[in-house]
């Protein structure tokens, strides 16, 4: 069941309290009915006494996959680690304008689908990956200059980690983690560097404080968003709608 963007915008500004979802703003009758239909399909039932749609579990967790994919999905997805398909990797490399000898970071690297392709272009590649089993795959492949096994969001730039010419990444998406990872990763660039990242299409229409902060960074740095085709990650097991963010480091951002 495809969900129109105007309904996704309504869901994005809803208020959540455990199993309760309360719609906000003024909705005309058609938009309300279209939204209510989506909520019901996602498991929410209108409760007149509560004046809210009630879910069996956490309402925000039920709605987040709808916002990410633009459709009602039958199976619960965490939107964490999904390997980057080859065609998407190549597009990332092209948009990053990769050149031999560049220093490149892949944070939350998974098993290195991006890092290995970047290393093949003659770059010096560092990886940060929280899962030791994934980091072992990268280590055994032998192309990484440095592998840190830790949560990227707890890793600070500096302290022995150099500024990079490029950051190329496919971060986790759950609960807008893609925005958190991308904004943090931008701090790892040297002046004149470039960050290229797969992100949820939600950054194009959501109006949360975090999304507004990201779009301010995008505007300040002269960045761009490039839409990926629907189903770009189907082979990796997710229907999330995605874009590629290209963000230079042309002004201070800490």
Report on the architecture of this protein.
It contains eight helices and eleven strands. It has 254 residues and is of the alpha/beta class. The chain folds into two domains: 5-69, no CATH class; 86-248, Vaccinia Virus protein VP39 (Rossmann fold), CATH 3.40.50.150. A hairpin with a 4-residue loop joins strand 3 and strand 4.
What's the total helix number?
8
Strand coverage percent: 15-25%
Strand order, sheet with most strands: 7-6-5-8-9-11-10
Output the CATH topology of the largest domain: Rossmann fold
In one word, what is the shape? elongated
Distance between termini? 41 Å
- Summed over residues and divided by their number, the pLDDT gives a mean of 89
How many beta strands in the DSSP annotation? 11
Instruction: State the name of the first-level CATH class of the largest domain.
Output: Alpha Beta
CATH superfamily membership of the largest domain:
Vaccinia Virus protein VP39
SSE blueprint:
Layout: H1 5-12, E1 15-17, E2 20-22, H2 29-41, E3 45-47, E4 52-54, H3 59-69, H4 86-96, E5 103-107, H5 113-119, E6 124-128, H6 132-141, E7 146-148, E8 164-169, H7 177-186, E9 189-200, H8 209-221, E10 224-227, E11 242-248
Parallel strand pairs: 5-6, 5-8, 6-7, 8-9
Antiparallel strand pairs: 1-2, 2-4, 3-4, 9-11, 10-11
Helix pairs in contact: 1-2, 4-5
């Amino acid at each position: 069941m495809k969900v129109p963007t105007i309904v996704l915008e309504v869901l994005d500004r809803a208020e959540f309290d455990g199993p309760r979802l309360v719609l906000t703003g003024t909705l005309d009758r058609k938009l309300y009915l279209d939204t209510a239909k989506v909520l019901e399909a996602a498991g929410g039932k209108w409760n007149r006494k509560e004046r809210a749609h009630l879910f069996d579990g956490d309402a925000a967790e039920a709605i987040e996959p709808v916002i990410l994919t633009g459709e009602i999905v039958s199976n619960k997805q965490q939107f964490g680690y999904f390997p980057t398909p080859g065609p998407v990797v190549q597009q990332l490399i092209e948009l990053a304008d990769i050149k031999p000898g560049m220093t490149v970071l892949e944070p939350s690297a998974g098993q290195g689908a991006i890092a290995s392709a970047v290393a093949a272009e003659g770059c010096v590649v560092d990886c940060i990956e929280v899962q030791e089993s994934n980091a072992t795959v990268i280590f055994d492949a032998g192309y990484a200059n440095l592998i840190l096994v830790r949560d990227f969001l707890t890793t600070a730039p500096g302290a022995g980690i150099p500024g990079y010419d490029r950051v190329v990444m496919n971060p986790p998406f759950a609960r807008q983690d893609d925005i958190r990872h991308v904004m943090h990763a931008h701090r790892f660039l040297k002046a004149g560097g470039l960050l290229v990242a797969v992100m949820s299409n939600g950054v194009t229409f959501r109006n949360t404080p975090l999304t507004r902060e990201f779009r301010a960074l995008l505007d300040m740095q002269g960045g761009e968003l490039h839409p990926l085709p629907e189903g770009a990650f189907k082979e990796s097991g997710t229907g999330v709608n995605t874009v590629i963010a290209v963000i230079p480091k042309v002004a201070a951002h800490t």
